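Chapter summary example: a protein plus zinc ion.
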Amino acid sequence: MTDLRTEAMLMAERHDAGHGVVLLKMHPEMVVKPNAPWIEHACRAGDGRPILNAVALHPDHKVSGGWPEITVSPSIACPCGLHGFLREGVWVPV
Ligand SMILES: [Zn+2]
């Protein structure tokens, strides 16, 4: 698996949300709203090759709770097929 995480992602504070999902507490300039975590997971590149990467939330996501007990709605989906809810810092697969 190719690791595409940047230095900023490697340095970020981390929280294991379960099911292979790790929340990254990124710099405020790198998030769409305060406390919006990046979602690190085993992903797939556009050509299908396995990668380790993290994705930012969509600006329409609502984020509540304090780090790391963060709740996001609606659900979070990645083009690779990852789909789930983040509830109080716990990943709940759909
Ligand atoms: Zn993905």
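Key point: The pocket of zinc ion is lined by residues 41, 43, 78, 80, 82 (CB under 6 Å).
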